Amino acid sequence: METLHTPTYAALLGGSLLVLQILLMLSVGTYRTGAKKGVGVDGDMKLERLVRRHGNLAENAAIFLIVLTLYEVMFGQTLIVLGTASVFLVARLLHAIGFSSLSGSHLVDAQGSGSSFVLMRAAGAGLTALSSLVIAIALIVSVVPAL
Q1: How far is CA 131 from the centre of its chain?
Q2: Phi, psi (deg, nearest 5) at residue 117
Q3: pLDDT 10s digits, 39-93
Q4: Cα–Cα distance between 120 and 113 in angstroms, integer?
Q5: Tally: H helices and E strands in the chain
Q6: Among 1.20.120.550, 3.30.499.10, 3.20.20.370, 1.10.3720.10, what is the CATH number of 8-142?
Q7: Which pLDDT band holds residue 117 (cuts at 50, 70, 90)?
Q8: What is the pLDDT of residues 83-115, one digit of tens each?
Q9: Is 77 exposed, middle or buried (0-12, 13-18, 19+ CB in 10 A)?
Q10: How many CB atoms lie within 10 A of CB 92?
Q11: In Å, how far are 47, 59, 78, 122 from 98, measured between CA atoms?
């Protein structure tokens, strides 16, 4: 029987992402309360940005954590797990920071200092895709020979 490993790195990443998710959720709720806005964005670009920032993390984090956890349970605390988890966390932080400005989300005044928010958003999205692809391929390549 094969040994199953404790998914320590996945647990650390999961906890970190949940804290970030809660902070992003609270930013949406706080803004909605202050602006007296219910469900939807009602043409409010700032609210749309806050909602997308929160939603994008939710869309990407869950599936990444599932695949990362599967890999770590099956193959242990490898450099692939540590590396992809670290890159994913940095990516999601960059993306959230990039989305903290209208220049990052809606390209409003995206020149000069505003271009840094665009770059952070793009880097966050690119690194999210890269780390997700690496852990997905690593899992597939590691599991297929055992079939």
Answers
A1: 10
A2: -70, -35
A3: 777 888 888 889 999 999 999 999 999 999 999 999 999 999 999 999 999 999 9
A4: 12
A5: 5, 0
A6: 1.20.120.550
A7: confident
A8: 999 999 999 999 999 988 877 777 777 676 668
A9: middle
A10: 25
A11: 15, 17, 30, 8
The two tokens of residue 49 are 């940005």
The token duo for 87 is 């890159």
- The pLDDT, as a whole number, for residue 1 is 46
Output the pTM of the full model: 0.91
Inter-residue contact 114 to 146 (CB < 8 Å): no
- Distance, CA of 3 to CA of 21 (rounded, Å): 33
Residue 108 CA to residue 97 CA, distance in Å, equals: 15
Read off the amino acid at residue 33: T
Boundaries of every domain in the chain? 8-142
Best CA proximity match to 9, nearest among 131, 124, 125: 131
Judge whether 85 and 64 are in contact, CB under 8 Å.
no
